[in-house]
Amino acid sequence: MASWLAPKGIAWYFDPPVNIGVNCREATEWSMSRLLMAQFWGLIVGVIASLVIASFLRKKRSRAL
User: Fold this and answer.
1) DSSP track, 1-26
2) For 8-36, what is each residue's pLDDT tens digit?
3) How far, in whole angstroms, is CA 19 from its chain's centroid?
4) Could you give the C-alpha distances from 34 to 11, 17, 20, 24, in angstroms and in order?
5) What phi and psi values does residue 46 have, to the nearest 5 degrees?
């Protein structure tokens, strides 16, 4: 939940109330979207790796019995 809400809060924080010539909002939103994609793909790879490891452990356990 925090990964979904935090980028919006961070982007709001980097949006100055007065235009001072420097605005980091676009760069912040881009980097936060990349962070969310990296977390998503990390989750997918972690689930697949966990299933593969669980499969090997289950096969090894059934051979031992």
Assistant:
1) -HHHHHHHHHHHHTS-SS--S---HH
2) 777 777 776 777 777 777 887 888 889 88
3) 31
4) 13, 25, 26, 16
5) -65, -40
